[in-house]
Amino acid sequence: MTRPQVDMLDLARLGPGRHECWLHLVDSALGEPERLPMLVVRGQRPGPVVGLTAVVHGDEVNGIAVIHELMRKLEPERLRGTVAALPVVNLPAFRRHARLTPQGSDLNHHFPGVTDGNDVQVYAYRLIDRFVRHLDVLLDLHTASRGRTNCLYVRADMMHTETARMAYLQRPQIILHNPANDRTLRGAAEELGLPSITVEVGNPSRFQREYIRRSVSGIRAVLAEKRMLPRRAMSFGAPPLICSESTWLYTDRGGLLTVFPETTASVKAGEIIAELVDPFGQRLRSYTAPFDGVIIGRATDPVAHTGARIVHLGRLAGEEAPYVRRDNDA
Fold it and tell me: What is the rounded distance in angstroms from the CA atom of residue 259 to the CA atom of residue 276?
């Protein structure tokens, strides 16, 4: 099957139905186009344009399966508006099975990019210019990095009514109040006025069917909320834990690391959460939780250099926080 190459998400040229094409961003050193797979489902009736992105980091592949499953199930005749998706954003890193670009850069700290900058800056700029700015809403799908695990959680600016609503509709295990301010794709989209959230769909370099299923359901709930799809009954289960802030804890020397609590576990201030031993098995350090909180993510690689990550610890929001819901409805 031959798929057309396009230079941008041009909805004026796409009629109702399914579209698969290659989005041209940059060129290789051989002068050949570097192209991203783009999937678009346009409904029979006009409506919002919801965008999905995955693999901003090259080894975070759960989002690919989320996009494939969602887009496969969308029916243009029942859809109002458009869903557009890039299942592989960071093509150079994806080819290397690596988180970072070949230059060692984290693409997710280079947005909105520079039109005449270096290769990573131009790549980021063209992604925004050729895809993101043509959307009304963005959901950016990630996972943990290699050597770590995540629960299913959402990062969102919970003081923004629409993004808070989108976060709750995902029905994740944890929601982290996290205004985007570090040159992320989500932050660049928000600067364009697009309500945006980051969905952390578990762990790297694998497909996790339960997290994929739950993420597809969450995205469909967002589409139904925007009246793009008919509403349908959903089983939400337990409400998410809400964190007002979070921090990573790091080792202060190298050794072999064991982390005790699993993701979503609650810990108390002063509780021992990890231990570091030397190559002879002698304990070097015990690490304790600096405050009461919940484990959002954790290290799984026991080989720890000085400054290695231990756990991603969230501080639970108090009942007085304006974005904490007191019911069990999304």
Answer: 9
pLDDT band at 320 (very low <50, low <70, confident <90, very high): confident
pTM of the model: 0.95
Cis peptide before 302 (omega within 30 of 0): no
Residue 3 phi, psi dihedral angles, 5° rounding:
-105, 140
The DSSP letter of residue 109 is G
Domain positions in the chain are 5-225, 243-316
- Distance CA(296)–CA(289), nearest Å, equals 13
Task: Give the right CATH number for 243-316 from 3.40.50.920, 2.40.50.100, 3.40.50.300, 3.40.50.150.
Answer: 2.40.50.100
- In sign, the C-alpha dihedral spanning 90, 93, 97, 98 is negative
Enclosing H/E stretch for 210: helix 209-225
Beta carbons of 159 and 195 less than 8 angstroms apart: no
In CATH, what is the architecture of 5-225?
Answer: 3-Layer(aba) Sandwich (3.40)
Q: Which residues have CB under 8 Å from 275's CB, separation 6+?
A: 257, 258, 260, 283, 285, 286, 287
Per-residue pLDDT of 260-296, as tens digits, reads 999 999 999 999 999 999 999 999 999 999 999 999 9
Per-residue tokens: 307? 């400054």
